[in-house]
Amino acid sequence: MYKFRKFVECVLLAGALLLSGCNSILYGKQYAVPQPGEPSATVRMKYDRNARLDAMTFNDKGCYAGYTTLLANGDYVESPVAVGKELILTYWSQVGGMQCQVPFSFAPEKGATYTVVSGSWSEPRKGALSVISPDQHFCGVKVVKKVGGQESVEPVQQLRIKTGFACLKFVKKS
Fold this sequence. Notes:
Layout: H1 2-20, H2 24-27, E1 41-46, E2 51-58, E3 64-69, E4 72-73, E5 76-81, E6 87-95, E7 98-106, E8 113-124, E9 135-147, E10 150-154, E11 157-164, E12 167-172
Parallel strand pairs: 1-8
Antiparallel strand pairs: 1-5, 2-3, 2-6, 4-5, 6-7, 7-11, 8-9, 9-10, 11-12
């Protein structure tokens, strides 16, 4: 009975998604990279076969519509990105059975290069759970902005996913 109920719930959810006009969730809308001659910035990250960087896309209602994994070009993952509006990226990595997912955003400026740098650390867990798992593991990113010879750390907004019926949104983490 439980399996049949789960099946019915999945069918109803898929039908609701298709009827709501958010069927792009199923197919994925690709990020539109600026064409040559259009204003752009560059996003890059040191290539790591266990990590990826995705550019997120949204429909007219602001609902998640898909993503594009930025591709490696030699030692770096690198892509031109649109300027003058918020860019939402998600950093993913998986090492030793641990998964890291960090959605974040910033507004790129024309001609700048933004290098995403990741890091991870552990802290001792407190309380009763420390017997089962003594350490808590964390990960994060920072973005280094370079314009000409000047480098600075770009303020980024870490995001969380807000779920709703047939619509997923990325909102600022509080």
